[in-house]
Structure formats: structure tokens, C-alpha cells
Design goal:
The protein is built from 13 helices and 8 strands. The relative contact order is 0.18. Strands 1, 2, 3, 4, 5, 6, 7 and 8 form an 8-stranded mixed β-sheet that branches.
């Protein structure tokens, strides 16, 4: 008799179209069947993956989740084609650094005064947010950044809406701030990519799998303007996660070295930490490629993510429910 699937919490990073790598990771985990998503904390593209997975899960379990994820990314590619200029192959991506630089000298309030957003149309058409708000099988935590306070805002439960997900993915040079209850919000990657702390206070699984799509390490010194900006963005969007992992490592050390009183220990969770990292798979892709929504590119990232998940299942699944498969201090902080 097959052993029952083990529930894990998922932490999904953002990173534009590189989120298709996470799609692949999720697709392989769902196909394998030995892991069940027990909670998801996510930001930006990770939040898109989170709501697509959960929506499909409500319809038809694992198969529904896989179908929903594919439908979402297929629509991203289809809609994106209308915004890609008719240029010879590769020309669009070569020009993206210039478009990116231009966007930093202009405002989305000037360039897009009507605030048109194809992502909103996709989410409205494909995701039933009313069902997501009442379901409790997969608690969702979506992070955005409050513009006025500079703090992370985590949307969960009844606050999971189209606007919450759009706010989580709102790059301020590209899109107008998303207003929710009178407050403007920008991309959650600035303050939580993704936020881990909600999992320490909620009734969620004791194992946490972090799916990285922003490389933590890159050899050498970037020297071109594009490479410099790319690395600045990676460091910026990893900073909040690294800070939280530092806190996690500190708590784990206190617990494991028995340095806490029983009352204090009871209030803290010693989560088992696991990770799938895209450092190797995405090391040769520039920041401009985060705007590439061609189906060939997206499915290539999906396939890379699927292989990474299969490798992780082969080497680390045995540790689920028992211990961490990464050494947080050694792998992230040293």
C-alpha cells in the first residue's frame, strides 16, 4: 500500500516570466503525488502560481492544479504575444535593457494613464477568488509592499482578491500602484520574497519547501549596465528572504542547543527547511528575459523546473517530516 502524501508548506518567489520555472517545480511535485500543498506563501509570479494551483486543486485535485497552472501560463504567453513587437528573433530581448532604462525615466501614470493590465484580465477570467477566500485546505499568504509605510502586507483568507495578487506583482516603474482599502501597494518582493513569518504563526505543516527563482550567488563582478542592474535587482529581491532565513537559523540554533526555557520553546516552531534553487538553471538569463513570454521560453523554464523537482524528490524526499534537507546557516548565510 502506498504511503499517504506528506503535507508541506510552499514558499514561492517572484521573478516575472521566470515564474514558469516554479510552474515546472509544482507540476512535477503534483505529478509525483508524494507531497501535498498544505499552505502557500508567495509573492508576485509566485502568487500567480499559488492561486492558479489552488483554484485547480478545488476543481480536480492534483490533475486540476496541473491543468490550471498550464492554462494560466499559456494565457500569459498568448496575451504577451500582442505586446511583443514584430521583430526578427531575439531583437526584442536585445532591446529590453533599453526599454527597462526608459521606464525608469518615465512613469506608468503617464505611459499607461488608463491602467490597462492584461494580468488582471487573465486572473479575472481564470481564477474564482470567491472560492479561494472560503477554502481552508490550502491557506494562502500573498505578500505586497505598502507604499506609504514601506512594510510588508500579507493578504490571507478573505483578503485574497485579484487586487491583492496584482499588488504583489506591481513593479512601480511598470504598473500603477494597486489601491486596496485606501492604501497603495507595490511588488511584495521589496519586503518579502516571499514572507516566511506567517507560517510560524499559522496552523501549517512543519516542513517548508522554498522554491527560489532569483539566483542567490553569481560568480564574478558585473560590469555592463545591464548586468549591474540585473544583479542589483537579484540582491534587492533576495534581501528580505535572507533576513528571514537568518532569523530562522537563529531560532533553530536556540532550540537545537536547548537554550530556551520550555515555555519559550513551546511558542516557537522548529520548521524543517527544504529548497529547490534555480541558481544553475537561470544563471545565464538576463533580467530582460523576465519579460519574455514566448511559449518556447516558458516551457523551457517549466522543463528545467520539473527536472529540478525530480532531482529534489530523489535526494531529499526521505527527509520530509524528519529533518531539514538544507543547512540554513551554511547554505544561505555563510
Amino acid at each position: 500500500m502506498a504511503k499517504p502524501a506528506r503535507a508541506v508548506s510552499l514558499a514561492l518567489q517572484g521573478g516575472g516570466s521566470h515564474g514558469a520555472y516554479t510552474w515546472g517545480v509544482l507540476d512535477a511535485l503534483l505529478e509525483d503525488g508524494r507531497i501535498t500543498p498544505g499552505a502557500i506563501t508567495a509573492t508576485s509570479a509566485g502568487a500567480m502560481n499559488a492561486v492558479a494551483l489552488t483554484h485547480g486543486w478545488l476543481d480536480d485535485g492534483r490533475d486540476g492544479a496541473r491543468a490550471s497552472l498550464e492554462a494560466f501560463w499559456h494565457e500569459v504567453s498568448r496575451r504577451g504575444a500582442a505586446f511583443r513587437p514584430m521583430m526578427p528573433g531575439g531583437t526584442f530581448l536585445k532591446l529590453m535593457p533599453f526599454f527597462d532604462a526608459f521606464s525608469r525615466l518615465t512613469s506608468p501614470y503617464d505611459l499607461n494613464p488608463y491602467n490597462l493590465d492584461p494580468l488582471k484580465d487573465i486572473l479575472d477570467a481564470q481564477i474564482d477568488f470567491e472560492r479561494l477566500r472560503v477554502q481552508t485546505g490550502i491557506p494562502l499568504f500573498v505578500t505586497a509592499t505598502c507604499v506609504t509605510t514601506g512594510r510588508a502586507e500579507v493578504f490571507t483568507g478573505q483578503r485574497i482578491t485579484t487586487d491583492a495578487v496584482l499588488a504583489s506583482a506591481c513593479l512601480p516603474f511598470i504598473r500603477q500602484a494597486v489601491e486596496i482599502d485606501g492604501e497603495p501597494y507595490w511588488d511584495g518582493g521589496f519586503t518579502g520574497n516571499p514572507a516566511l513569518w506567517p507560517l510560524f504563526y499559522a496552523d501549517t505543516p512543519g516542513d517548508l519547501l522554498i522554491v527560489h527563482i532569483n539566483p542567490l550567488k553569481r560568480p564574478g563582478t558585473p560590469k555592463s549596465a545591464d548586468d549591474i542592474m540585473n544583479r542589483v535587482n537579484e540582491i534587492t529581491f533576495n534581501a528580505s528572504l535572507m533576513a528571514e532565513l537568518r532569523a530562522v537559523a537563529f531560532v533553530k540554533r536556540l532550540i537545537e542547543d536547548d537554550l530556551l526555557k520550555d515555555a519559550e520553546k513551546a511558542r516557537l516552531r522548529n520548521l524543517h527547511i527544504h529548497a529547490v534553487r534555480a541558481d544553475e538553471a537561470l544563471k545565464d538569463y538576463s533580467a530582460a528575459s523576465k519579460y519574455d513570454t514566448s511559449w518556447r521560453f516558458l516551457t523551457g523554464l517549466r522543463d528545467a523546473g520539473r527536472q529540478a523537482a525530480k532531482d529534489w524528490l530523489r535526494t531529499c524526499h526521505q527527509h520530509i517530516g524528519k529533518r531539514s534537507s538544507v543547512d540554513v546557516r551554511a547554505d544561505y548565510l555563510q
